[in-house]
Structure formats: structure tokens, C-alpha cells
Amino acid sequence: MQFLYRAPIGLVQLTPAGAIEIANPHSIQLLMPLSSDGNIENFFALFDGIAPQLRASSTAFEAPTGVICQAVRVAIPGVAGTAPRVLSIDVTKLDAARLMAVIGDATYEAEREQQEVARQLRHAARVDGLTHMPNRIALIEQVQTVIDREPVDVGYEFAVLFLNCDRFKEINDMFGHQVGDEILALMGGRIRADLRPGDRVGRAVDANQMAARINGDEFVVLLEDLCHPADVHLVAKRLLKTLAKPYRIGGRSLYSNVSIGVATRADVTGDADLLLQDASIAMSEAKHEGGARYAVFDASMRERAMRRGGIESDLRAGLARGQLFVVYQPVVGLQDGVVDVTAGVEALVRWQHPQRGVIAPIEFIAIAEQTGLISALGDFVLGDACRQFVAWRTALGERAPRLVAVNVSRAQLVTGEFAVSVAAILRATGMPPACLQLEITESLAAQDEAIQARLHDLRALGVTLALDDFGTGYSSLSSLHLLPVDTVKIDRSFVSLADTSAHHRVLIEATIRVARSLGMKTVAEGIETEAQAAVLRELGCDKGQGYLFSRPLPAGDLSCWLDRESLLVA
Questions:
Q1: What 3-state class would DSSP assign to 137?
Q2: What is the DSSP secondary structure assignment for residue 338, as one 8-state letter?
Q3: DSSP of 421-435, one letter per residue?
Q4: CA-CA-CA-CA torsion for 336, 341, 342, 344, nearest 10 degrees?
Q5: What does each of the 570 residues of the chain score in pLDDT, given as a tens digit?
Q6: How far is Cα of residue 176 from the mean position of the Cα atoms in its chain?
Q7: What is the DSSP letter of 156?
Q8: Is the pTM of this model over 0.70?
Q9: What SS3 state is found at 18?
């Protein structure tokens, strides 16, 4: 009994109905705030309003003696200015006629748990769940800390590197988001491993190299207290090399290069977000130059970025308002001793901007690819070309082009829906599939099995495929037989030197011979002189196009050109 009264915890002996038989002083102290009139005769009655499950579970308990039949925590509201409290209650069955309630003050423990939960939530809010790297919130805080330090420490050099994957959307489209997430996790690990503690970092003991994933396929590296500003170039080059290595996933090797934008202390405007924006602009500049490289920010990049942003906005409006149109460049036959003017045409898109006049595709195609506009743009060109081809056949008969070629962008081909879209346009326009030639770049055709599977899907529709700009990409004559194409287009950079460079003449001749051995046709691009045309004709090239024959023409003007050239040939 002495133990009961001196115990530092509340002990209450009660009947199964809740009547209190014995209660020590500590329990009375804990229970008294629950009774408005000071009556604490029934233990369960005290809790009916705030923990009714205590009575229900304890009275229905059928387990053997010595077993806890109910364990709860009960929040007690503060009264008369007192602070709220949390009680822990364990009810144990002593025997058939008695229960024992053990009551403890768990207020401090509950506060500690709440603080720990809050700490974990704060941590989770600052950590990327996929890569377990710091996220944008944590990065911005650290970058701002570094920026705020800079004015009072003149020699303090730092830099941020903004990394973005060059082909990540294509990987997601081709292999699924789970594979994409695996690559991002591996990429995060490589970045962290590549930032060597102390490497390139100078004087300050607390200098950091922070790597964060801030969004999707975007990572940022913060380098603090650089020994020399030029060291950032070494880190950027090392990251490019590390991240260019293949990622082995699911038995296949996947590649995902990155482009990096660098902003340094010299670019600071006082705001962390603006510094990251400058680094992002430099990264976009690196992508614009072909990707898999890095670029260091300068003010002119911001002007170009604003211009590209304006082009994106105007292009969206231009598509909606019918400002884009298609022109057609003749593709002529070079064999049989005559120029066959009806061999075909290539469809080329143009943009009639309301303020800037006609804009060439080199200024907006890449932006359309980056902003998701390329599918709508590509469908517009393909639909217009097919409708125009059918109209020419109706109006011109045998004098109409026998084939129309349309360029296909990388972004169109990787979606997996392009073949479905092509099939729908063929049906809607009545276009004969065999008269449509889709042109893809050499680098795209040579990429991987997934892309080549998409090309086979297109060929199954009955259309033909052409390899554009051959000689400028990744493939070679030895691998030409691996590509599912029907026509090889020899790049203009070779054609322009056909009559003056023996080396280029040999390359052109080899291409023509290999293509012919594989049953492929050849087309020479960019023919501008009679001498170039004569060499290509002599070497056996099947077709050619270029300013020697005609510039790209609107559909109506092309009809007139066909009439005129047909009469001259006749």
C-alpha cells in the first residue's frame, strides 16, 4: 500500500464498471481537472466525453488476467488558464472483479514527438524524394546565403551550374516514367560522387559543394569559395563526361547527355532566383548549340532568351491564326538524259509573322520542339502537303509531282503516336501512301531500336522513308544497311564541293554506289550550278534539288513552274 501512495505515476484500482476503489495521490492530481464538480467516483465517467472508447474496450475485454486491455493517450484541454495536457492510460485486468489503470503525464513526451514530426516534415519539405538530394527550397536558401555573404567578402568566388537532360522526354516516351526515374536517381548519385570534397574549393573551412534536384530532369550544383573562378570550367567538363556514360537499366544501355549553364559571382543581382534564372538561360543556350556541352552566362543570352520566349508566344498565336504556310521545292530527276521536273517536291514550312515578315524555319522549329508545339506544327504541314498533292494530281494529271516529301522532327517521332496521326491524315486527304516520303535526319534514324521500330510502323502504312542530310550525322556507309530507309539524301555540304574537291566527289560516289547496292534511291541537296549537276548526273545520282532548278515556291507558283518547265523539256 505504501508503494501505491508513493508511486510517481497515477495508479487507480477500479471495478469493471469503472467504480474507483483505490486511487493514489498522483492519480487524483491527474484526474481532478477532468471533473467539473470534484466527483471522481467513476473512472470511465471522467473520460466519456473525450475518450469513450476507454469504457467500451475495457468492459468488453475477455482476455486472461495480467493483460493490458486498453492503452490510450488522451488530450486534456486546459481549464482556468492552465496549459493543455496529455495523459497516457493503460488499463490492465487484475482478475474478474478488478481492473488497474496506470496513468502518466505524457505531455512532454507528446511535445517531443510533435517536434520530431515537425522536424521530419521540414526535412521532407527540403529533400527530393526520388534522389534524396536537397530540393529547390533548400538550394535557394543556400544560394541566397552565399549571395548575402559576397558583398562583405570581396574575394569570395562561387558559381552555380544548372544541368538539364538533353533527351529525357524521349526516354520517358519510349521506355516509360519508371525507367526515367531510375535514370534520374542514378544521375543524382553520379553528380554527388563527382563533386569531390575539397576539390576546386578553397579557403573557407565551411565551404560547400551542394548538389540539388530542383525539378523533373533539372539539377543544380552550387560551388562555394572557389580557389579560382576558372575552376568551374573543370567541374563542368568533368560532369559532362561523367553523365555522358551509359545507364544500364533492365538489360539495356541508355544514354542521356546533359547541357549545363554556368552563372558566377559576376552575374549576381542580389536574388537567388535570378541567379538560377541566369544559369538556366545559359543552359538553354548550350542546348541551342546542340546540347551535351556547357555555356557560361552573359547578358546577351538574356536578350536572346527573351526573343525566343517572344517567338514561342507568337508561334502559338500564329498556329491558331493561320499565319503558317507551306512552300514546295521541286525535286528533279537527273538520269535518262533529261531533267524530270515531275519527280517530286519537298514541303517546307514558313511563317508569315505580322510584324517581322516571313520567318524561316531555322528560327522557330527548335522552339516548337522544346515547347511541345511541334506535333501541331508537323500535322499542319503534313496535312497541307497531302491535300495539295491530291489537288495537283486532279488539276495537272501527268504533269503533277509524283511524290511529296515532308520532314519529320525528332519530337514527333518519339511520341509513339506519330504513325497513328500519319494514318489519319492519309485517310482524311485521300493521299496515296506510296506518294508520301517522310524525311528523317541521319542522327535520328541511327539512334536505337525504339526509334527504328517507329520507322517500321511508318513503312507499314505504305509510305517511303528518306535519310536526310546524310554525311553529317552518326552513321556511316558501313551501317547504312541497318537503317529502314528507301532514299538517301546527300547533304549540301558535300554537293557544294562536288565539282571542285576530289575528296568530296569520292565520298558522293561511294554513297551512291552503296545506296544503289541496297536498292535505295539517292537525292542530292543544294545543287546550285550546272557543274555540280553534271558531276552528280555522271556519278549516277537519281534526283536533285536546289536553286539551280528552283527556289521553294508557293503551291500556285509551283503549278506555273511545272507548266513552264514541262514545255521547255518537251
A1: helix
A2: S
A3: HHHHHHHHHT--GGG
A4: 100
A5: 566 667 778 899 989 888 999 899 888 888 888 887 878 889 988 888 888 888 877 766 565 655 666 677 888 776 555 667 888 888 888 888 888 889 988 888 878 877 777 777 676 778 898 999 999 999 999 999 888 875 555 667 889 999 999 878 878 877 888 999 999 999 999 998 888 654 433 333 344 578 999 999 999 999 987 877 788 999 999 999 999 999 999 888 888 899 999 998 887 777 899 999 999 999 988 988 878 999 999 988 888 887 777 888 899 999 999 999 999 999 999 987 777 899 999 999 999 999 889 988 888 888 888 778 888 999 999 999 999 999 999 999 999 999 999 999 877 887 778 999 999 999 999 999 999 999 988 666 655 677 778 888 999 999 999 998 786 654 567 778 878 899 999 999 999 999 999 999 999 999 999 999 999 999 999 999 999 999 999 999 999 999 999 999 999 999 999 988 876 654
A6: 12
A7: -
A8: no
A9: coil
- Give every CB contact of residue 188 below 8 A, 6+ residues apart in sequence: 128, 130, 131, 132, 133, 211, 213, 219
CB of 501 within 8 A of CB of 521?
A: no
Helices (H) and strands (E) counted in the chain, each on its own, are 21, 21
Cell numbers representing residue 408 in the block? 519529320
Helices 449-459 and 418-429: crossing angle, nearest 10°?
A: 20
The Cα 160–Cα 162 span in angstroms is: 6
| Secondary structure (3-state) at 492 | helix
**DSSP 8-state assignment for residue 150:** G
Structural domains in the chain, sorted by start: 2-109 (3.30.450.20), 128-297 (3.30.70.270), 322-569 (3.20.20.450)
In angstroms, the CA 244 to CA 426 distance is 40
The Cα 77–Cα 292 span in angstroms is 62
List Cβ neighbours of 144 (8 Å cut-off, separation of 6 or more). Answer: 271, 272
DSSP assignment of 519-558 equals: T-EEEE----SHHHHHHHHHHT--EE-STTT---B-HHHH
Burial class of residue 481 (count of CB atoms within 10 Å of its CB; 0-12, 13-18, 19+): exposed
HSE-up of 172 (CA within 13 Å, CB side)? 11
Here the contacts of 152-157 (C-beta below 8 Å, separation 24 or greater) are: 156/204, 156/225, 156/265, 157/202, 157/225, 157/226, 157/227, 157/228, 157/229, 157/264, 157/265
Give Cα 459 to chain centroid, integer Å. 29
